Amino acid sequence: MGKEDEQRNLATAEALYAATASGDWQAAERLLSDDLVITEASTLPYAGIYQGRGALRELYDKVLASSLGGATISVLGKLSGGNHVAYLLELVPPSGEALQLVEVFHFGEDGKVTEIKPYYFDSDAVNRAVSGA
């Protein structure tokens, strides 16, 4: 995997964030592989494995329906290496407790996203934010 591929992957991740933020699911799904897998840890309110090109929208619908739907998101940093891109993020839900996470994207040879794994620093804080506690 060369530098050009890493730059392409980073640009794809940026385009995916932009498409989902604007609600352009057709554009978002063009960036995802048919066999996309999103894994949410068992300690999170959205625990499970989401599969297929529509998985990201399914997960977003669940998140937006919760108290995290009103969260502001700040990108703290981005890293690209090999077939992976990682975003360092901070979500601030209406409850005000900042949630820090790293979202890791894996890319196939065709440049489409094949896997997304979010890693939250404090899953208890996520659960408190969702439950309103």
TrEMBL record:
Taxonomic source organism: Croceicoccus pelagius
SUPFAM superfamilies membership: NTF2-like
Source superkingdom: Bacteria
Name this protein carries in UniProt: SnoaL-like domain-containing protein
InterPro entries: NTF2-like_dom_sf (IPR032710), SnoaL-like (IPR037401)
Ranges of residues in domain SnoaL-like: 14-116
Coiled coil spans: none
Pfam families (UniProt xref): SnoaL_2
